[in-house]
Design brief:
- By secondary structure, the chain is α/β, with parallel strands linked by helices.
- About 40% of the residues lie in helices and about 20% in strands.
- The chain has 2 domains: about 220 residues, 3-Layer(aba) Sandwich (Rossmann fold); about 90 residues, Helicase, Ruva Protein, domain 3 (Orthogonal Bundle).
- The strands form 4 sheets. The chain has a 7-stranded parallel sheet, sandwiched between helices. It has a 3-stranded antiparallel sheet with strand order 7-6-8.
- A hairpin with a 2-residue loop joins strand 11 and strand 12.
- Bound molecules: ligand FO1.
């Protein structure tokens, strides 16, 4: 069975760990979000690609959900001692090696997809991880604060501000000119199912779908999504702040309607939102079941349910 997953960071990575257990024989291709990428100290940092690679490769810091296990922050401390900014982004010493290797390869002319493949030779995530595009896309957020109305990098809004200042607009800069990375459209076309994990529907899944050609390719397939919202709140992260920015209510129903029946064929909601399954959503088959990924087994059960629903709908 060939499965394609459009994944962002922590939620997507944890879902993928369950999917691997639920479908050990499946050929899984992950199309990773790169809108969160940021250049820091001359290095290209790819948070969502690294979170998937480390989580599936066994190198993730389980408690944080991002960055490396057994991490130290000596370089970060030294940079702060020089008073260089930004001091608000936690680049660990082990993690820096990934960004140094990535940046070296990019500077040597390798596309991000080739770099990601090379990094995965070490981590062996057990899936094919492809960035959504090899072109530069960077999500920026428009806010108004004491310095007036301005655009800041998504990571500054997310990490330094903790999304505490309303996002007036969320703009994936460069996405209109971006091309799907080699293999992305082919993997989607050959897939038996495309799964939308409980990643951020705006800045992760939404950004991947915004790469020209991707949404149309995905919409042609059997697509099942897993709600990132349970009982009106995101399980983790600040998807509510992102949904508010685009005028979408933070609910399992609203996110499915936002994706739309032309994209989604099936939608899993938590038992807290069973009413959505009872009432139904036009054009989308809704099922309710526990959606908290409390451990790998729970994530595997959710992934299995998503695959079963996809099988019903194919
Ligand atoms: N998230 C934080 O909340 N604080 C951090 O200091 C931080 C550092 C960081 C470093 C590398 C990396 O790959 C991810 C990191 N993240 C941090 C998470 C990151 O902001 C998010 O994973 C995504 O961009 C949103 O999904």
């Amino acid at each position: 069975m060939r499965i394609v997953v459009l994944a962002g960071g922590i939620g997507g990575a944890r879902f993928l760990r369950g999917l691997k257990r639920a479908a050990p024989e499946a050929e899984i291709t992950v199309v990773g979000n790169t809108g969160d990428d940021i250049f820091l100290f001359g290095l290209k940092v790819c948070p969502d690609l690294d979170t998937v690679m480390y989580t599936l490769g066994g190198g993730i810091d389980e408690e944080r959900g991002w960055g490396r296990a057994d991490e130290t922050f000596r370089v970060k401390e030294e940079l702060a001692a020089y008073e260089v900014e930004p001091t608000w982004f936690g680049l660990g010493d082990r993690d820096l090696a990934t960004h140094i290797v990535r940046t070296q390869m990019l500077n040597a002319g390798y596309p991000l997809s080739a770099v990601t493949e090379a990094l995965c030779h070490r981590w062996r995530p057990g899936v094919r991880l492809i960035p959504m595009t090899d072109d530069r896309v960077e999500t920026h957020v428009v806010i108004t604060d004491e310095r007036g109305r301005r655009a800041i990098h998504f990571q500054e809004w997310w990490v330094r501000l903790r999304a505490s200042v309303p996002a007036e607009a969320i703009v994936p800069i460069g996405v209109e000119e971006a091309k799907p990375a080699p293999g992305v459209l082919e993997a989607i076309a050959e897939a038996d199912a495309v799964l939308l994990p409980p990643s951020n529907p705006v800045v992760s899944v939404g950004t991947i779908l915004a790469v020209p050609g991707v949404r149309e390719a995905v919409a042609a397939k059997t697509v099942v999504g897993v709600s990132p919202i349970i009982g009106g709140a995101p399980v983790r992260g600040m998807a509510d702040a992102c949904l508010a920015a685009i005028g979408v209510e933070t609910s399992a129903r609203a996110v499915a309607e936002h994706y739309g029946p032309e994209l989604l064929d099936g939608w899993l909601v938590d038992e807290a939102d069973a009413a959505v399954a009872d009432e139904g959503i036009a054009g989308i088959a809704v099922r309710s079941r526990p959606l908290l990924m409390t451990d790998v087994g729970a994530a595997a059960d959710i992934a299995r349910a998503a695959l079963e629903l996809a099988g019903e709908l194919r």
